Amino acid sequence: LISDLDVVWLNGHWRRWMSWADPAHPPVPQAAALALADVLVTTDELDTTHDDSGRGVSAELNTGVVYLRGTRGAKAMVQSWRKAMLRQKGGKHLTENVNDQSLFNQVVSGGEVKDLQAWLRSRRAEGVAAPPDAFASLPGNYRRVHQTGSSHEPCLPGAGCAATTFTFGTLPVRPFTGGHTWFNQNVQEMDGHEQPQHQPITVHFTFQFGDTKEYPHGKRQRAREAALWAVDPPEYFTEGIFVALKGASYDEEYKQQVYRRFPEWSPQRHMALDAIQRAVVRDLLALSRALGAALVMPPLTC
């Protein structure tokens, strides 16, 4: 199980999506097939309704969380991924868009596994933990598993081994959240968020400012705002001078005026509400600088 440094783990419920190994705690029904795939990975999917259907991959795979099962297929994927990265080493035309994740997306692709019973038998024959009736009551929105069309060698170059295909699946965005689904869509407050199939497990700080070594503070501050950064000393919150906004940036009357002026689909509605919020932050920043104080950022509504 691999996790990026900017992933916060909220609990230890990852097994309910990834493994049949503990008979006393089987995976959730939606993960019955997923918990047998060679490779599992999170995505940058933003549409929770589409994702809940479990029917396909429509967004870029994100290697923030990757699970590799101890199978020949998983080893084949790793070696194929490794070779893809080595081929780029020393290239003269490399850009920031050529990285381990972009190459992972090139390697991990294929079509849906259709004959689930035959696949289940092959999984069990290989020693993957699963009961013979694992697919007896699949829900309509079970998460589909895909298989590569080409075969790959599951060993180091020169070792000599038979090539094999591998299977993969994507982890759902409500339990394995990203920056947009957590901070903007608030999946942790959506209907059913307390149910096992929707309970958040991780927060990956994607779609956030602060991805470079020159400015590492953005993700840290986002974590503070969500009470996910637990390493500040108590004096961080109590010592010094602070400037904060008392009340909201705008009232309900102003909001309704904007709503009447611009239809829901218009970006001008967002821009009008955003303008007054930016003006508030500007004034707070000027005041805090004049006083030598720390600015407490007000809540910003998208």
Provide keyphrases for this structure.
302 residues; 6-stranded mixed beta sheet; 33% helix
Number of strands: 11
Summed over residues and divided by their number, the pLDDT gives a mean of 92
| Main beta sheet | 6 strands, mixed
Secondary structure: helix percent:
25-40%
Number of helices: 10
Spatial ordering of strands, largest sheet: 1-4-3-7-6-5
Poorly predicted spans: none
Give a verbal description of the structure.
Helix 6 links the parallel strand 8 (about 175) and strand 9 (about 200-205). By secondary structure, this protein is of the alpha/beta class. The longest helix has 25 residues, at about 265-290. The protein is about 35% helix and about 10% strand. The model has no long low-confidence stretch (mean pLDDT about 90). Helix 3 (about 70-90) packs across helix 4 (about 100-105).
Q: How are the SSEs placed, and which strands pair?
A:
Layout: E1 2-3, E2 7-9, H1 15-18, E3 39-43, H2 48-53, E4 61-68, H3 72-88, H4 100-107, E5 111-112, H5 116-125, E6 146-147, E7 167-170, E8 176-177, H6 179-184, E9 202-204, H7 217-225, H8 235-238, E10 242-244, H9 252-261, H10 267-291, E11 294-296
Parallel strand pairs: 3-7, 8-9, 10-11
Antiparallel strand pairs: 1-4, 2-9, 3-4, 5-6, 6-7
